[in-house]
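Thread: "does anyone have the structure for this chain?"

Original post by V.I.:
We have the sequence but no experimental structure in hand. Need at least a predicted one for the grant figures.
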Amino acid sequence: MTKYIKKKKNKNQTINIQKEYNFHQAINILRKNQNKKFIESVDIAINLNIDAKQSSQNIKGITILPHGIGKKMKIAVLTQGDNIQKAIKYGAYIAGGEEIINQLKDKKNNFNTIIASPDMMNLITKLGPILGPRGLLPNPKTGTVTNNIKETVKNFYQGHVRYKNEKNGIIHTTIGKINFSNEQLQKNLIAIIIDLNKLKPKNIKGDLIKKITLSTTMGVGIKTEINSIYENTKFI
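Reply from O.Q.:
Generated one for you, tokens below.
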């Protein structure tokens, strides 16, 4: 244990935790100091210009990441008719109506997402007490209740992240894996920023995002210059 602590301390000596780094500098620092035993996630903490004590200012959403999150998605779809085969074809693990309810209730299945067509609202209501606490209940606001089963399953299979601010007005989520290219991580982060700004409460003055900190699963946080995130990309 002592050796590990010394090694981690020495690795972080070259990092100024008070300084704001350019996005690419920050990623390169994280890459240089990554854990060699497994592929770490690249995580972000976004400080928002909100008062989390006011319910009208709380932010909750989902972003489909252009380059995914680096792991295979397990999607279930509540639907019927032709949509069942479409869902399976484009990446759903299971699809159907009443016949898949027991599988949705089983916590061992560990679904990342559950999507439903509007005609299945009666089943969604029944599943509320089970899926709600796990953050899996289909909802039109998160794009998981839709008539376009094909496109929705394709997008979610590609990879998405869910987020909501905690009591200090900070959102924690991931933008991929440390073995992603800088550009892939950059475009994933921009996608989240774009979606967050769409969710900006009307009564907030000024910019929604105050500060962004990048880190790896086991690494130190690196403050990142917000404007640098958009540099050298054709994403927008």
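V.I.: this helps a lot. The first strand starts at residue 20 and ends at 21.
O.Q.: and The chain is about 30% helix and 20% strand.
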